[in-house]
Amino acid sequence: MKSWTFAAAGIALLFASCAGPGRTGGLQHDQWGHRPGPQGFHTVIIDAGHGGKDPGAISRSTGDQEKDLALDTAKRLQRQLSGKVRVVMMRKGDSFIELDDRASRASGKDGTVLISIHYNSSSSGIRGPETYYWRVDSHGLATRVQRAMESVAPSESGNRGKVRRRLRLTRNPDLPCILAELGYLSHPAEARLCADPAYRERMASARARAILDQQANGDASTGSLPKPIYAPPSRPTDPPGS
Ligand SMILES: [Zn+2]
Fold it and tell me: What are the boundaries of each domain within the chain?
């Protein structure tokens, strides 16, 4: 099944490349994403980052592992969205899924958006929530989710804003997709904040409202769309931050 999914994704990619940018054949999913953001979508895929053998970032001050906080936060978001939109969980337990498998599992689905949940880490002492996006059709959703997280994070977090970055989970899926980093586990005060279940619940609640706002209103009030970028899919061998 996995190899079939890979083959299908490869064929879809090849076809989209041959067809050229901007030709979507009327499908709602689209390889490039050079279009306005979605409105009226019926499904949200929640992707809790890392898992299993891959712990992600580990806080030196709290000992929390990113994979556990991400899954907890994903489940809180699932509960907040329950009954309002269909929710699909990329992982439900402590299991490892390759990034390329996550991208191909999310692709090919109409009326669907993908939200990846992570916690950040850096050696430079920075903190604050941050949202990555790459596709034009993901700009509005990234703006809404980042605003939501900024409304919950304390002012001293110094919110880091939304960042256009070509990652395997922002460039490669063929549907609107964003990757939300809720905070820096490398920052002691922020790690303690992220360790608080009440804080994670407020974050989940705010992000659920942002997603439902996008569903109801599309890109309205999220600013002008960014310019299309014609860049190849993100590969594991790409240098970081490229
Ligand atoms: Zn991560």
Answer: 39-217
